[in-house]
Structure formats: structure tokens, C-alpha cells
Amino acid sequence: MRRTAVSPAQRAGTRGDCLWIWKRGDRAAARALEKQLRTLPSADPMDPGYRRLRYIRYADDHILGFTGPKAEAEEIKGKLAQFLRETLGLELNQQKTLITHARSQPARFLGYHVRIQHCDTKRTSGRRSVNGKIALRVPPDVIKAQCARYRQRGKPWHRSRLQNLDDYDIVRIYGAEYRGVVGYYLLAQDVWRLGALHWHAVTSMLKTLGAKHPSTVTKMAARHRTKIETRDGLRTCFEARKHREDRKDLVARFGGIILRQDRRAVIRDPAPAPVPYPRKELITRLRRRECELCETGTTVAVHQVASLKELGNPGPGQPAWAALMARMRRKTLIVCAACHEHVHANPAAHAARSRPSRTRSHPAGTPSNWSRRLPTITLGRPLACSPRSCSRRLLLPAAGTQSGSRPPCRLPPGRPSPRQHQARKMQRRSQTSSAA
Q1: What DSSP element (H or E) covers 233?
Q2: Per-residue model confidence (pLDDT) at position 239
Q3: Confidence (pTM)
Q4: Which of 41, 17, 16 shows the shortest CA–CA distance to 29?
Q5: From CA 216, how far away is CA 208, in angstroms rounded?
Q6: By three-state DSSP, how is residue 246 classified?
Q7: pLDDT of residue 188 exceeding 80
Q8: pLDDT at 192
Q9: What is the rounded end-to-end Cα distance, in angstroms, of the chain?
Q10: I need a surface site. Which of 20, 91, 168, 175 has the fewest CB within 10 A?
Q11: Residue 241 and residue 215: Cα distance in Å, rounded?
């Protein structure tokens, strides 16, 4: 069914008057009549005998495009709700099922704003090519919500939970998030509005790298900025590499995507692959068989402290191993045998403070043999591993060595072994019980 055309006499009369005035030499009046001609539709938009209905569904989301009066649209909505309730046993959400005029306000479908375009001034080959065409646009609230992930205190902020990762992982995470959002909205005409998201994401990424190293945003940008060849030519992006022996380097990139509408873009929604349960971080660090202090591959052990506060305050007096553990925010450190001995030989100086012993006060009439001193409470002992806290026996040989050739991790002079420590503890308990 076609719409009824506008009165041919009306359009012909306007066009004829325009040509006659133009030939007469009054070009200003001819241009005014031409503008009036451009405002007249080519067909009657209020044709009472014209109807059209289009239907699109994705999973449980659907949209109906209807050309006709609003009363009939309400009737279609009622019939749809009745079918869902009686046939499928489902209820139509009245709050989300809306009837909107697509030319004056957008309809929300699958994260896009769907509108009907109308512009009498935009012409292609002398015709108004956009009138009545469907337009997909990026919702402003989506841009605001995506930018909010990188904002804190009113501006782009670093992510503290990513500081302990490698530069490769940081750039990879930011790049995947930005690439996913831009790839989804490439069908939109105003995809260029995602430039605000690009600025927030790249600023947050550079601040996270700066907080990790510690450095400035400018230095981090100069270190990771590069240019890559794409189908649109050279594009500037940020790149981080992870070196691997006997294999190609892992490369992570952020950016390099031109914010321009791609009408042939395909939104792929593959089924998620089963993800294996990740190993613990400590086991992953042990399996590398690499000392985190001297960065050499050899037999490694685990040095452990009771709490991070025992690492001391940052400054010249803090050992290098304590500064590394504080920067990693970990109570464990994977070290080789030589570095392990160095750690025990160079404890944090400020941690050797102790509180004087206190004596318990008893009321009058208490037997004298009941009065005994409380054990001394030591605050911040020298950072040496206790038999229970330091896993000295947890040794992994270097790659390519046999298990029988592992060198033993010897305790420093004057340090009791775990068996001696347990024997002394049992002896103190027996002496205390006999005194009581």
C-alpha cells in the first residue's frame, strides 16, 4: 500500500512559479519559493488509509515499528499482552513497554536510541535523502555510565586494584573494555561521542601506570605511545609488551580505533568459553621459578612476614626487599637461597622495639606462689622468619635441574631449628605448670 501523494497541482504550481520567477530575474523570490517547496512532503503523512507494521525481536527484547494512529498502537499492545498471558503464560512489563513517537523522542532497544530522521535542509543529489530514515544513536546516559567507571573525586582516577599487575595486563584490561564498548556502538551515527570515553579511559590507564612505577602521566604516555598500521592508515595507540623466551612477545594495545560509523559492522555474540578455575597467585609465582628480588631463575623459597606493618616505613632505612614487598602489597616474597640469607641478615631497623614486661596485680590474701610475671610482649621483632611463618622447606628447583640436587636452605647462626623451638616451648610449659 502506498501513501497518497500531495496534491500535484499544488507542487506543480509552486515549481512552475519558481521557474517563471527565476526566468524573470527575481532570484531572491525564486529562492524563497524553492525553500517553501522543500518543506512540502512528497506524500501525505496523514493518509487515513495507510498502515505499516515492522517487527524485530532479539531474545526477550522486541520492538514494533507502526505507522498509523496512536489508538491502533494501543490496541496492538493490548492484543500482544493478551497473547503472552493466555498462550505463553507470561506477563508484559507495562513500565518497559512504551509507545513513543519516533520523530520527537527516541525509543530504547538493545542499548541504542532508535529515531526517525527529518531534515529538509540536508540534500543528496537534489533530494531530501534522510527524511523518514531510521537512525541509531548512542544514548547519553550510556556514555555517562561508562565514563563513571574511570572517575573518582570528579575526575579520571587510577585503579588501585590494578597497580600490582604488569604493564601488559593493565593495558590489556583497559584496551579490552574500551574496544568492547566502541565495537558495539559502531553502528550508531554519532559514535564520535565516545571520544569522551576514550579520554577518561586513557587518562585513568596512564594514572594507574604512573601510580605503579611511580611516575607522571606524561612520562607514561611517552613510554607506551606508538603508531600502528590499520585499514584507515596510521593510528596512534598505547602499547605494552610482555617478553617470553623462545616465543613471540605478547602485545596489548589501547585505542587505534577510528570513531566513525561502520554500517557493515557485525556485532558478534559468541557463546562464552568455559574458564578453568584460576590457580592461587602464590602458586603461580612459585611456578615461575624466578627470584623476585634479583630476577634470576634458580631454586626458590618463600619468605613470609606476619603483617605488612612489620615492613617498616618507606625511606632510606627500609631494606630493598621490604620496599619490594610493600610495593607489591604482599606478605610473601619468592627469593633464591642467597637472597633469602640476605633478607635475614638485613632486617628492618625500626622493627626491633619491645614493650617492657608487666606484672599482674593480685588482691590482698593471694598466695605468694601465685604471683608470676606475664610473658614479655614484643612489638615488631626483627624481620626474621619464625619456624611456623617462613616456609623454608617449600623449595622449588630451577627449571632443568633434578630434585636431588636442590641445595638446602640453612638457618642463620644462633637461630633454633623448628624441632628445637618446639622442644623449648614444651619445656617452658612444663616449668610453668610445676611452679603453679
Answers
A1: strand 233-242
A2: 94
A3: 0.60
A4: 17
A5: 10
A6: coil
A7: yes
A8: 93
A9: 106
A10: 91
A11: 19
